C-alpha cells in the first residue's frame, strides 16, 4: 500500500519532533508514504526524508491562497511517479489521506478524482459545532466545503464518538464510512513518568495550583480560565494559575490577568517539553475550550492522576461519567467551572474518588498499546481500498 498524505503541520519538518516520529511510524504501515505539507515559500522549507520510505514535501506556495493548487500539482506528480514505471501497469494499492475536510480535503478530492484513487478524510475538530461556525468567516467557508469533500470520501476517520454522532446526524448517508479512532496517548508512559519538576516547589507561594495546557488561541477561550480563576482567587487568595502554551492571544491574556487583579497569581509558562511533570504536580487541570475534536489534555491529565474540570467538549462526557459529570460544565459557564475547582480543593475524598473513577474509564476508552493503535490505523487505510 502506498499513501499520499496532505497535512498542514509544518512540525513534520522538525526531525526530532513528536509529529515527525509519528509520521515515521505510519510509514511502517506502507510501502511508501509521501506527505505534502501546506507551507509558504518564505519559510525556506525543502523536501526531506524522515524514514527509509517516508518523504515530506512543502508546497512552497507564494500565498496561502495557492496551497490547494500547489498540493494538487505535487500530488499528481508523486502519484504518477509511484504508480507508473516506463508505462508499466499501475501498482494496485494507492490512497490519498487528507488531514481535514477543508483545504487539505479539497486538495485530496481533486487528486483522488484526477488519478482515480480512493480518498480518506480525517476529522480532528467538531466543525459542526455552532461555535466553530461563529469563530470566523474562514470557518464558515470551511463548513461549506466539508459536505462536498465528505460525500466523495471512501472512508472517514474521526477522533471521538461525539464527532461521529453529530456527523451522522447531519449527513446520514455517510453511515458505514465513518470510523472512530482516537488520538493515541501513551498512558503507560505518562503513568511511569518521574516528574523532573514539582510545581509546588517551583511556586511555593501557591497552596493550590490550577493548570491550563492549551494553545493560546481564541477558540480555546483561555480568557474564560482567567475569569474562573478570579472567582477562585477571591475565596482562596493563595491559589495559583499556571498556563502552559503559546499563541496569538498571549499578550491579550496577560493584560486581562492584570485587569482582573490576578496578575501576580498567574504564571504564563510558555511551551514546555516536560508537560507530564506539570500534570503530575498540579492540583487540578482546567479546560475551557469552546469546542474540541478530542481534547487530548483530558486523557493526559487523567493518566497523570490529576483531576480535571472542563467544558463539555471532545471526549469529556465519555471520560467523566455519572457523578464525575459535576466537573463537566456547559461551554462558557464560569460559575460551574469555578465550583468544580473549589469543591476539589475543599474535599480530598472527592478528589480521590474523581481520580479513581476517571482512571477506570480511561482503561476502557484508550488503546494502551502503540502497536495495536498502528494496526487499527492501518486497517482504516486498508478499508478505503476495498
Describe this structure in words.
45% of the residues lie in helices and 17% in strands. With 386 residues, the chain is an alpha/beta fold. The chain folds into two domains: 2-184 and 368-385, 3-Layer(aba) Sandwich (Rossmann fold), CATH 3.40.50.2000; 188-365, 3-Layer(aba) Sandwich (Rossmann fold). β9 (208-213), α9 (222-235) and β10 (239-244) form a beta-alpha-beta unit. The longest helix has 18 residues, at 348-365. The model has no long low-confidence stretch (mean pLDDT 92).
Question: Secondary-structure map with pairings?
Answer:
Elements: E1 2-7, H1 18-27, E2 32-37, E3 48-51, E4 54-58, H2 67-83, E5 94-98, H3 103-115, E6 119-123, H4 130-135, H5 137-152, E7 155-158, H6 161-170, E8 178-180, H7 187-192, H8 199-202, E9 208-213, H9 222-235, E10 239-244, H10 250-259, E11 266-270, H11 275-281, E12 284-287, H12 296-303, E13 308-311, H13 316-319, E14 328-329, H14 334-346, H15 348-365, H16 370-385
Helix pairs in contact: 2-3, 3-5, 9-14
Relevant terms:
45% helix, 14 strands, Rossmann fold, globular, 16 helices, glycosyltransferase, alpha/beta, 386 residues, transferase, 2 domains, eight-stranded mixed beta sheet, six-stranded parallel beta sheet
